[in-house]
Amino acid sequence: VLVGIFLGAAVLSGQQAYQVALESDRLVRFTSRTVIDEFEGTTERVDGLVLLNTEELTDRTGGAESEIYFEVDLASLDTGIGMRDRQMRDSYLEVEQYPYAAFGGTIEQVVSLPGAMFRVTTRGILGIHGIKQERALTCDLATVNEGYHVNCSFPVFLSDHDIEIPKLMFLKLNNEIRMELDFILEPAELDSEN
């Protein structure tokens, strides 16, 4: 579904599209640390696409023709405690109104690292809880088979997205949440304009 929505235009010759491999392990984790407590929530419900302006990831990849879009289903976040999950989803994330966290943008820079790895810097819009914010995110990618293993870690500040900071006994959060994403990108089958 995302393939058609995200890439309204066909892939041009010399471009390559990748999608989140839904048959592979996927993990999105948020971690909150306070002085007295730490807890995390996880989901495997992440989906997305990458359109490279090159046939494979290289130091030449980037620019307006290299687009990315990822989204996470916030209603599927699981902290291991049902009451805490319901309170977080209903009262703070308000998932009925704002079901997804999403990031869309372009690849700004790719740096080759030893061992068929890359450090990729992107710039785009992070949307959470109806608030959109321009962000630069950096991810590490490792070549696997015909795709890439993606690993990202970055902070999200609840106040930047107009999310009230819970202070209830069973749900104490810090304003700064650490987000981690871990998934595989595989080649996407798209039409080519030739």
From TrEMBL:
InterPro entries tied to this protein: Lipid/polyisoprenoid-bd_YceI (IPR007372), TTHA0802/YceI-like_sf (IPR036761)
Protein name, as recorded: Lipid/polyisoprenoid-binding YceI-like domain-containing protein
Lineage of origin: unclassified sequences, metagenomes, ecological metagenomes
Annotated ranges, domain Lipid/polyisoprenoid-binding YceI-like: 17-186
Organism annotation: marine metagenome
Xref: SMART domains: YceI
